[in-house]
Amino acid sequence: MRLAIATDAWAPQVNGVVRSLTETAAALAGLGVEAAFVTPEGLPTWPLPTYPDIRLAIGAGPAIAARLDAMAPQALHIATEGPVGHAARRWALARGLAFTTSYHTRYPEYVRARAPIPEALTYAWLRRFHGAATRTLVPTETMRRELAGWGFANLSLWSRGVDTALFRPRQGARLDLPGPIMLSVGRLAVEKNIEAFLSLELPGTKVVVGDGPQRAELERRFPEAVFLGVKTGEDLAATYAAADVFVFTSRTDTYGNVMQEAMASGVPVAAFPVPGPLDVITDPTVGVLDEDLAAAIAGALRLDRPACRAVAETRTWEAAARQFAAALAPFDAAVRAA
Predict the structure, then answer these.
(1) What whole-number distance in Å separates Cα of residue 71 and Cα of residue 239?
(2) Long-range Cβ contact pairs of 202-206 (< 8 A, separation 24 or more)
(3) What is the pLDDT of residues 191-234, one digit of tens each?
(4) What is the DSSP letter of 276?
(5) Sign of CA dihedral 185, 186, 188, 190
(6) For helices 257-264 and 233-241, what crossing angle results, to 10°?
């Protein structure tokens, strides 16, 4: 099957959406699904207000339609609700073709953190966007229940895996810093709630990997923390392996791939007991969830590192890709059903 995946989130962005899509596409090849991406590459873009690192395509409609026509896909998945996603949606609806979507980002909460826009209004807009899909894929059962409560229908589970070959325990991995090493990896933006970690009085060193609109402010406010910027590949994996505990501060993420990367590296997780962590840290041997983040960190530091690795090894991208493939709506099946 030839599958087109339309997404506004793409390189050079480094985030869970891009990682989930690329890893799933790679695993789909083994299932007989040839995935090709429709992205903002080659299109004029403008920076997202309050978040200039994310750029959105301008006038994407004709270009995206032409790309999809040239691809002649047999199925379409729309991963994001930006200009590329809207253009792909219009293309499919104009041709009477079924498609699937996925829900990655809690935009209502993110928008509300930046502007006085009621969450119900943003959820209504999202509900309309996803309502035209045959299935909307969500990362966890918690998100499925939450979106169902907002009136979303036809929800299916598409979980996440982890690259256990890249992210693994590494004997001798270390950072030349006072221990314990408490690591946070992710986008440095207001919705990630990183201040909850950086403001704690804790022994050891707080290490932050990532970039974003809040980085300069956070470096100024918390000079004792070590900010390493964006890391990828082996460099990122070695940094995980050198940590003693991974601290996940977000209260709004739909999943949190970074937690599984930490676990695969043999590093226990400390987080708040909210959607995302509740679905990823399902075994008490791999992490501690507590509204008192300092207590969660202290508890996680006492956990067994091999247990973290063992749980991560059960979460493969192949399993996630099988869930994804099962939800697809091939065009020929949609035509026959019509």
Answers:
(1) 40
(2) 202/294, 202/297, 203/178, 204/178, 204/179, 204/180, 204/244, 205/175, 205/177, 205/178, 205/179, 205/180, 205/181, 206/182, 206/247
(3) 899 999 999 999 999 999 999 999 999 999 999 999 999 999 99
(4) T
(5) negative
(6) 70
